[in-house]
Design a protein that fits this description.
Length: 465
């Protein structure tokens, strides 16, 4: 094959990448036994292919590089922040995304779990994660995305307690409750309500589902008081040993055990070898996106061809910013310690989640717009929520949050800019989710055309019924 002399004077970055990919393919041949010498030849794998595009074109260096990129694929990550009742916002976003996947794939039974490779969730976001990926037959997920926010809207009153008002000073954030010496009504009844609710969700035919009963890798954090360190519940670890396999209802109970609202949970693995005293995962990581990315980058067994963040596609769902009362200098200059409780709770929760968002955007660099999407409500025209918006299950608060969620999807998307704060982009959150759904469907279709597997998930052994 003749070469163009003008292209041989200087080394090309694309040629370097192509060489690297060729060695990766040779490695895949060694690891997986594939022996296709035409692996690099581009394939017609676009979901929007023209009906008359049957004539193939000869491979070139340019489309060969693109085909290699298509062969490597992208690992798709879902991350859901913690936020108590505010997770109605992320639940509504999940419901819209799943409907978009059904539309774009043409599959009326498409589910979130069909298109994501890894899911991470904190607090109620952890409950949503477990719901979306839990299975009773190791084939299909039990729940639809619509079930997530409906679970919170309908069952929240069993474990959250309405306060005397939505705009006063009662309730609102675990720091305020700690300053006031607890929730007022004690934590016992709320804890019992939470345990009953999650047990009902994650029990099938009298058997408690465990981390092994999830379709794909899930990551759900808590804070372990016995070791004074974060603890990450992981399906990958559970499949390695029963010492890291935990009952899903206990995992959800642990990640959402907000201090002064719920009691800590003393839990142990299914074989009794690993124990922890767990409280709210939001104390460790209210936004688990970075943990999910790190899991993929350092898990070569399940994700053998990931080289960096350019091989990762991330959707991160927040639970709203600027939803509560704002303050000016004249208001705050005379505050006492108890007056700072709620603002500190918001800073420590939303602030740390926002910091992770900035760090992840920085890590993606120039590929952040094509590989990383953050869906977050930024204020609302419906007015400010009460100070206890995250723990108020009253019909009025649920109605307010559903309205904010619908407004959030219509808002312009806001993305973090390298060393430049944030900027409003042209697309709405609706449009961003539509675009992301199209990318997920495209990646799913391309995988059926690849020689080497994009992922090599550890498989759970079905448990006897």
């Amino acid at each position: 094959m003749a070469s163009n002399p003008s292209e041989t004077h200087e080394p090309s970055i694309d040629n370097d990448k192509l060489s690297y990919e060729i060695f990766s393919i040779l490695e895949s041949k060694f690891l997986f036994g594939y022996d296709d010498q035409k692996l690099w030849v581009p394939k017609q794998i676009s979901p929007a292919a023209e009906p008359n595009s049957e004539v193939s074109t000869p491979p070139t260096a340019e489309n060969g590089v693109q085909a290699i990129k298509n062969q490597r694929g992208k690992i798709c990550i879902l991350s859901i922040d913690g936020g108590g009742m505010r997770n109605i916002l992320s639940g509504k976003a999940l419901a819209y995304l799943e409907q978009a996947l059904k539309t774009k794939s043409g599959n009326p039974d498409a589910r979130i779990a069909d298109y994501f490779d890894v899911a991470a969730g904190t607090g109620v976001g952890g409950i949503f994660t477990a719901m979306l990926f839990a299975t009773k037959n190791h084939s299909r997920p039990i729940f639809h995305a619509e079930d997530t926010w409906k679970f919170l809207a309908e069952q929240g009153k069993r474990f959250y307690r309405s306060s005397t008002g939505t705009g006063g000073s009662s309730g609102g954030g675990f720091l305020r409750r700690i300053f006031r010496g607890g929730s007022g009504n004690g934590t016992g009844s709320a804890t019992v309500g939470l345990e009953k609710a999650v047990k009902e969700v994650f029990t099938e035919n009298g058997r408690s589902l465990t981390l092994k009963d999830t379709l794909k890798p899930v990551l759900i954090p808590c804070y372990d008081l016995s070791s004074s360190a974060p603890f990450l519940f992981s399906r990958a670890d559970a499949l390695e040993t029963d010492s890291f396999d935990f009952r899903l209802w206990e995992v959800c109970r642990a990640t959402s055990a907000e201090p002064a609202l719920f009691e800590p949970v003393s839990m142990k693995s299914v074989d009794g070898q690993t124990r922890c005293v767990a409280v709210d995962g939001s104390l460790a990581m209210s936004n688990p996106t970075a943990a999910a990315i790190t899991h993929v980058l350092h898990n070569k067994q399940e994700f053998p061809f990931v080289r960096g963040v350019e091989d990762i596609l991330v959707l991160s769902l927040g639970t709203g910013q600027l939803l509560e009362a704002s303050y000016d200098y004249d208001q705050v200059k005379g505050w006492k310690a108890k007056d700072w409780a709620r603002p500190l709770a918001r800073i420590s929760g939303d602030g740390s989640a926002d910091l992770v968002d900035h760090a992840v955007a920085l890590a993606f660099g120039q590929s952040r717009s094509s590989n990383y999407v953050r869906i977050q409500a930024n204020g609302s025209s419906l007015g400010r929520c009460g100070t206890n918006v995250d723990s108020d299950p009253s019909p009025s608060n649920v109605k307010m949050l559903v309205g904010i969620a619908e407004e959030m999807l219509k808002q312009k998307n806001v993305e973090s800019v390298l060393f430049g704060g944030k900027r409003i982009v042209e697309q709405s959150n609706f449009e961003k989710l539509d675009w992301f759904a199209a990318e997920l469907v495209l990646e799913h279709q391309r995988r059926s055309c690849r020689i080497a597997p994009t992922v090599a998930f550890k498989q759970a052994t079905p448990k006897p019924t």
